[in-house]
């Protein structure tokens, strides 16, 4: 009976964790990469993500150089339901711009928001809700953690927001609209136990003369010690203002269920300009007001019974039968 009870509790915990989809036992941060996940933080959860960055830019054709540092931040809040969150995000930069094409070289300081957006994200589809009703193989770790093609079916989220550009911003032309829309389609797949693949397609500054289309592909891996994870990311950007291909790599470490630290380095492949950059940051969530809410799905019992509870009762009944046989 003890063995059966152990498997029963193990199965119940597996189902409980997966069925609530949005909220996770440990913090789920968009850092350290630039992509956003398809999942929301969870109803009534407040999450802060922020850090500092440094960057060196050298433009070979224009003979210019930029030495920069700055701060970036994101404040996320789960509103009304598990699938919805609102967010306030931005990056503020200080730099020294040097024009070596003049004699003597011209040097001056600048500062302003590189990005400043307010928006909302909603999760449209979560395949893991259905898979949460599948019974785990309690006798095979490999069966539960190996690659399955259906794991590539992604969760899908949509973000819609607005960019805000304040007056006298040195990083944007004076003709840039003060407010412009931004939309992102985000997908997220979990496979082979410890791998996560996220993709973003973003159409930014839609009403601007320098509207921008970009994509981000992020692959993350959790190590044997689950507190450590590493990622590799590629971002492509295309607009009349700026076009490039960027690569980032780094990692994150969990100091607790609600506290993460991270770091990454990155570079561009162009020399107009060449970009080298690095960043460190933290993520912290306040989840004292969160209450688990089961998101209804078609596979649940039509009488409204909790499928996780039925699974637990089945495991326990099987254990009782074995004891009676003895």
UniProtKB/TrEMBL annotation:
Chain segments carrying region Disordered: 297-326
Keywords: Signal
Signal peptide residue numbers: 1-21
Residue ranges, compositional bias (Basic and acidic residues): 300-313
Name this protein carries in UniProt: Transporter
Composition bias type Acidic residues, residue spans: 314-326
Lineage, opening ranks: Bacteria, Pseudomonadati, Bacteroidota, Flavobacteriia, Flavobacteriales
Pfam families membership: Phenol_MetA_deg
InterPro entries, sorted: FApF
Organism listed in the record: Kordia antarctica
Superkingdom to which the source organism belongs: Bacteria
